[in-house]
Amino acid sequence: LRQGESHYAFADNQEVSEIELMMLEAADAYARRIRACKRIGAVGVGVSYTTLSRFSTRVRYLTALQKLNFAPSNPLLLKIAHIPAGTPASRIGDLSAMLRVQNIRLLLEFESLRAVPEFTFRINAVGVGSAMPHDEDPETRLQAVRHVVDVAAREKLCVFLDRIETPAHLEIAETTNVRFGVGLVFGQMCFS
Question: What pTM value is reported for the model?
Answer without folding.
Answer: 0.88
